[in-house]
Design brief:
By secondary structure, the protein is α/β, with parallel strands linked by helices. Helix content is about 30%, strand content about 30%. Strands 1-3-2-4-5 form a five-stranded mixed beta sheet.
Length: about 100
């Protein structure tokens, strides 16, 4: 899994035009549950593609997708939002989101 910091400028190309499902993690460095989720996401590094979006650095993206709590995971397929999870989740839950 390639971990990429998505930005407002890169989001369309890297997520909406991706040829495979993309998991997007909206997070912030000051967020305890976000830091707890990081190793879970890293443990999936050989499975799929995911992007991370720092809500402090990219508030327009957070607003565009209605992010009110973090961490929030969004799954996109063929440019469409197909799944959403809010809060700390386990590896099996993330794998279910990606199906």
């Amino acid at each position: 899994m390639a971990i990429v910091h998505a930005t407002t400028q890169s989001f369309e190309q890297e997520v909406l035009h991706a040829d495979k499902p993309v998991l997007v993690d909206f997070w912030a460095a000051w967020c305890g549950p976000c830091r707890m989720l990081a190793p879970v996401l890293e443990s999936l590094s050989d499975r799929d593609d995911f992007k991370i979006v720092n809500v402090d650095a990219e508030p327009a993206l957070a607003m565009q997708f209605g992010i009110e709590s973090i961490p929030t995971l969004l799954v996109f397929r063929n440019g469409q939002l197909v799944n959403r999870s809010i809060g700390l989740v386990s590896q099996p839950e993330i794998l279910r989101l990606m199906q």
